[in-house]
Amino acid sequence: MSILGLKKKQPKTFKVKVITMDAEMEFSCEVKWKGKDLFDLVCRTVGLRETWFFGLRYTVKDTYAWLKQEKRVLDQEVPKDSPITFHFLAKFFPEKVEEELVQEITQHLFFLQVKKQILDEEIFCSPEASVLLASYAVQAKYGDYDPNFHKPGFLAQDELLPKRVLMQYQMTADMWEEKITAWYAEHRGIARDEAEMEYLKIAQDLEMYGVSYFAITQNKRDTDLLLGVDAQGLHIYNPNSKLNPNKSFPWSGIRNISYSEKEFTIKPLDKKKDVFKFYSSQLRVNKLILQLCIGNHDLFMRRRKVDSIEVQQMKAQAKEEKARKKMERQILAREKQMREEAERAKEEMERRLFQLQDEARLANEALLRSEETADLLAEKAQIAEEEAKLLAHKAADAEQDRQRLEVTAMKTKEEKRQMEQKMREAEQLAVKLVEQSERRLKEADHLKQDLTEAKDAERRAKQKLLEITKTTYPLIAAYSAPPAPPAPPEAPDFAYESTSSRLDFKDSDMKRLSMEIERERLEYMEKSKHLQDQLKELKTEIESLKLEEQQQQAGVYSLRNEARGYVPEPVYLPHSNRNSAYMSQMAFFEEV
Q: Which superkingdom (predicted)?
């Protein structure tokens, strides 16, 4: 057997794991793939077109490195693990995020990376700016603030502030949440992409934003320094201060950058200035510094040239997309506002309806009381009439007795004298009974007249209540009618037969009853008039609200149709519920 036959067959693919700021992806790559092949695959998967800001970073020994595009992946110092892990991160940062970041996915990836750097304290941020940035992060995650939905404690699981800021002040988590929520409530109406852009616009003004720091020494004196590389140029810092550089070299003032093993040389454009040299501990770090310098310088020069056709197209598409989304948000905001106004109007109408139903119930109760009073008056008038008839019958009997006594008095003088005496007494009694009978008849006539007036007032009150009910149809039709009260008892018949019983009916009782009837009748008429006025006013308001609602619906439909580009057919709403409510309410008032 030959030696070649003993060799293991080499695999044609290898596994790669790519971690972005919000996802993890695994790919199967060919052995011959270069770094550009893997990078392009990741960008296509993410949907990223602004690729010049990003790179694939991996860890090597005690530092990190960026995957080179022109070399094969397996030929570089990548980890030998399976799968090989890469981090898809922003390698270069823009000078002005609002002008350079075009795609929404690009803005989102930058937002997540900068937010993580601030929370990990890789970028220094003051407490005030941290709270403001946290409020924009909450707006991007939760949308508009709603006190009914966002109850206290809804941010308990979110990491929003650096630990240094939390330890700097003796404040509880609830107090920090209250401060963040106060700013968060003011961002109402800002979309997610706008909130993330506002976050980046604030973050780009921080001193450590977009700066990559490296430990260096100056000359052979081993003076410890820090080198910062960002979109503006190169900066030299003291080790204990990363905020204010001691010396800066802008890209526009650098003529050449080179390194030889561990020595790094910066040659200014002005030949009169001294050449700056520094040393790093590893050759790998020098390569990384040079790689970042070349990339940042290329982007620096690119920003000062006319945008390419691809970038112009991307910006035009992004502008159209933003305009479209803005219009959709405005339409949704208007629809939401109209819906809220309709809900408030509905609640007000329901409140008014309940109020009018209560008033109608009180009016019905007053009507029932007046009917009961009229029935009582009729009964008393009937009793008075019967008493008058009984008195008249007794007067007739007394007259007959008197006549018999006169006949008997003719027999004897004594009997005559006695009969005369009895006759005088009978005459006196007859006169009294006649007077009492006439008085009772007058009282009966007066009660009949009061009864007639009470019935007329009752009839007029029923007619007005029926008219009020008919005028409130638009409001009553929207809601179910109250249950119909029982039919009032019919007025008793006045044709009662005479009985032998006699009732004691005083004049003061009749007067007091008449005064009570008159007072209740006046109160009932006044309440009925007040109810009628309120029902008329409510009818006018309901008609205006219906007209406004139809106009609002027509405005919403027209706005939607303009956004979509077509004209919909008219939509007719069913009125079955309204008709059923109206018929039940009318049946109730017809029974009354």
A: Eukaryota
